[in-house]
Amino acid sequence: MASAVLRAVARWYPVPLVLAVWEVLSRTGAVSKRLMPSLVEIAAAVGAAMDNGDLLFHAGISLGRAAAGYALAIVAGVLLGVAMARSRLFDALFEPLFSFGYPVPKIALYPVFIFAFGLGSLSKVMLIFLECLYPITVNAFYGMRGVDRVHVWAAENMGATPRQVFWRVLLPGAAPSIFAGLRVALPISLIVVIITEMIGESRGLGYYISYASASFEYATAFAGVAAVAVIGFTLDRLLVWLRNRVIFWERGAAFIGAA
Amino acid sequence: MSAAAQRRAAPLSRARRTALGLVLPLAALIAWELSARIGEVPSYLVAPSAIFATTWEMLASGELWQHTRVSLLRALGGYAIGGACGIAMGLLAGIARPVERFYDPVVSLTYPVPKIVVLPILIAWLGAGDASKIAVITAAVFYPTFINSLYGAKGVNRLYVWSARNMGAGPLRVFAKVILPAALPQVLAGLRIGLALAFIVMVACEMQNSRSGLGHLIITAEDSLRFDLMYAAIVAIAIIGFAGDRLLLWLRRRALAGQAIGKEGAHG
Amino acid sequence: MALLEVRELDKVFRRGARAVQAIDRFSLSVEEGEFVAIVGPSGCGKSTFLHILGGFEPHDGGTMLLNGAPVRGPGPDRGMLFQEFALYPWRSVIGNVAWGLEVQGKPKAERIAAAERYLKLVGLSAFRDAYPAELSGGMKQRVALARVLAFEPRILLMDEPFGALDAQTRELMQEELNAIWQETRNTVLFVTHDIDEAIYLADRVVVFTARPGRIKDEIRIGLERPRRADVRKSAEYMAYRNRVWDSLRAEVLKAREEFK
């Protein structure tokens, strides 16, 4: 019992340490207290924003957009990656689009998206979709291609049909790589939703944060930042949890997104 | 794949692959150009030929380069600082347990958080100039380089270290001659992800609040309905993003000549 | 007619303009219930031959008849045991063993019963619900063996099945395979680079030449069955060993020349 507490302290002590440094900087006025509000003030701002429902409202909007774009990207990306891995024609048609387009910041297309899909949610969802599509497709492709050939051979040896080989061997074999792509895409979906909401919008956490800072309400802005942090962290943990349930046979393996 | 299936799907020749790869982009460009000329599309879809002409003009007048230079300065400034910190601290954390244990909780808590959220606040702290943008880019680049360097240094085969020790190498030499080269593939993988993020965040910052740079150019051109200008800026962003990545890949090939090139890396 | 008839098999690897003859007019027949081992220097094409026979790789000429019918593509009449075990990490031990029968559409009760029977044969009943990651190399290969036996192929193709195991485990596995064979009397084609393994297990040892692979020598092993472990110490065994090694030695040296 005591040793468990000790272990938790040994593992997590840097977090309160960082917070303490923040608090000292704020209280002593080393950094202007207005720009760097104390944790108490930020907590009060979070409380107030929760009470009047602002925080939940804007968080819900941002979360909905990110989730919609992300989900679309999963469906399209996995299908496309699988098709490219299975068909030489698809591979030849799409491979250049992905290898040339990957390092290009698609976010630059946002103004075009606004004209095409309007100022509302659709333009943001489409941009999130486009940015997330790349890592998900590429990882699904490499996952399918990387399946151990003796696994395929052993199945064919038993007389498995191509369909059985696909569902029972290739897909589970590619699953770790597919999940790695999902983990790369997750923070990207949040980056894109926040930045697009900062640029031109009256709803969502990105708007909330930039509006609060523009009106010098820094504690409120930090409350928004805290909300984004909580969302990002929680979603990532959820994905890790899900991945470990689905890919139970590799639970101990490192799960870092490969781009 | 079975023998029968392999015979059916003979590999495509390189020329045919390239030709097939051009099908989709060319078809899109031609359809775009034709429909823009016929006038059946909304005004924001400027004909590719017009975009090309404007890009050429702005290149010649030096205007495009001016914005590109400002953008590159910010992106590469943040990239250099964030990358240097990420690699140094990541390698250190990879070889020293206490350092890793110090960073681990803070990094794992903040890693999935988009660093761009603090931009408006940083603007209040540092002003709307280059400093706030460079700071956000630094933060964004730090994470993937840190995590990849950490894993790279941690993953070094213990036998390499032992054999160097066995030959009498001191800690400094072990670090410089064994750990650094062994971790290099993953460090470079982190740098590659960091570069892509640096450009994304650069564009995002400049679109959000800036008086110069390619992102700013996109927004002002859009406001004044100069769509040809907007596309010229988009083309410039695409080119530097792509060229930067290829440059890094080329550097990696040179640096890792002889080593089996490790694939990919962790994303931040 | 023999169970397996391979006639004039050819295999050429092409990489760009370069072509390497991997197998050159190779012929072999295997009788029902016979245990044939193929030995040869590394890179001689013996594994390639097994991959072709398994239907995984195409060949360039010749015929292969199993039970009188030509071999086309992979199929459950030829059970393949891989050096890499090829167990599915997401399936439990029993799930791996029963899968071949599942693929063939056998009802669940039947396939579980059969899988349990074969798990018992390889001595792993206690591990029926374990996952491959929890098993040692020797245990993994025993699961793979049970999996192949369970779908009852006409012939077993073993591609250096014990090559990835340590020396002690390997020797125990040889004894175990010997005992299992004594019980099942399967027809086996066994590829290895280990002379002792070949002599101890097989009725007939076929020596492959260095690339291009073709038959150099065939030695019938007359050691009495059932063979116990201490047969390896007998003078008769040593005589076979010297005979195979003399034949193989020149090929190994030739293969080494090629790398220089």
Describe the structure.
The complex is a heterotrimer of chains A (259), B (268) and C (260). Chain A is mainly alpha-helical. Chain A has 11 helices and no strands. The longest helix of chain A has 38 residues, at 162-199. Chain B folds into 2 domains: 1-41; 46-267, MetI-like (MetI-like fold, Orthogonal Bundle), CATH 1.10.3720.10. Chain B has 268 residues and is mostly helical. Chain B is globular. In chain B, helix 4 (63-95) packs antiparallel against helix 9 (171-208), helix 7 (130-154) runs antiparallel to helix 9 and helix 8 (158-166) packs across helix 9 (171-208). Chain C is an alpha/beta fold. Chain C has helices at residues 46-54, 93-103, 108-121, 137-150, 167-184, 195-201, 235-259; strands at 4-15, 18-30, 35-39, 61-66, 69-70, 78-81, 155-159, 187-192, 204-208, 215-220. Chains in contact: A-B, A-C, B-C. The interface between B and C is small, with 5 and 9 residues.
Question: What key attributes describe this structure?
Answer:
heterotrimer, A: 259 residues, mainly alpha, MetI-like fold, 11 helices, 79% helix, B: 268 residues, globular, disordered N terminus
Structure in a nutshell:
The complex is a heterotrimer of chains A (259), B (268) and C (260). By secondary structure, chain A is mostly helical. Chain A is built from 11 helices and no strands.
Reconstruct the topology from this structure.
The complex is a heterotrimer of chains A (259), B (268) and C (260).
Chain A: H1 2-12, H2 14-28, H3 39-51, H4 54-86, H5 88-101, H6 110-117, H7 121-145, H8 149-157, H9 162-199, H10 205-214, H11 218-246
Helix pairs in contact in A: 3-11, 4-5, 4-7, 4-9, 4-10, 6-7, 7-9, 8-9, 9-10, 9-11, 10-11
Chain B: H1 3-8, H2 14-38, H3 48-61, H4 63-95, H5 97-110, H6 119-126, H7 130-154, H8 158-166, H9 171-208, H10 214-223, H11 227-255
Chain C: E1 4-15, E2 18-30, E3 35-39, H1 46-54, E4 61-66, E5 69-70, E6 78-81, H2 93-103, H3 108-121, H4 137-150, E7 155-159, H5 167-184, E8 187-192, H6 195-201, E9 204-208, E10 215-220, H7 235-259
Parallel strand pairs in C: 3-8, 3-9, 6-7, 7-8
Antiparallel strand pairs in C: 1-2, 1-4, 4-5, 9-10
Helix pairs in contact in C: 2-3, 2-4, 3-4, 6-7
